[in-house]
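Researcher: I'm preparing a figure for a lab meeting and need a structural model of a single chain. I don't have an experimental structure, so a prediction will have to do for now. The sequence is pasted below. Please return the structure as tokens so I can convert it later.
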Amino acid sequence: MNILNLENVSYTYDERTNVLNNIDWSFETGKLYGIVGRSGAGKTTLLSLLAGLATPTGGVVDYAGKDLSKMNRYDYRAQNAGVIFQSFNLLPHLSAVENVELAMAASGKRFSEPRKRALDLLNQVGLDEELANRRILKLSGGEQQRVAIARALAIDPQIILADEPTGNLDLETEDDIMSILTKLAHDLDKCVIVVTHSPDVAGKVDQIYELTALRSSTGKKKRR
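Model: Understood. Here is the structure written out token by token.
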């Protein structure tokens, strides 16, 4: 089922610098997508549009049949789209489990036993209770990335958007993170969209969309 559609989407900075041009892409639940392209091609800008952090200067980002620009985009992110930032954006003075609990509280959704849910989510991404109770600054980069994924899952979103989720990780941890993201798509029927520079990561997704500077490519690569 298509959950996100880009309909003739363009984006221009300062009415002069054209970043994205006339993109028509669709994203389904149950699939893991990769968005690739050289630096400056607009990958992070596109992710910001999908997350409702920016509004296209042309065209429409359609979420479940609705124009995202006309929705409450804070509610969209808080309830429907979990975002995993490249720099994690975790609160360092809180523990891992507290970061996940805070996302649930901010969503406006009601969850029974939020502490148990947070611990279960952290366990699902490979963090036991001892690590879950550590402050963020006491965790490694790979552990912090796992917390960021658990936080994104805390609101039970249909869409997971990840900006370079393995960019600062070693190869073993990269494999672990990609395995988690793949299971989210295939086993939990999420729409998972990953921006990446890594050929290894791109080789593990179901479908690739490629951006080239100043124009979009509609070429797609199916997972073999």
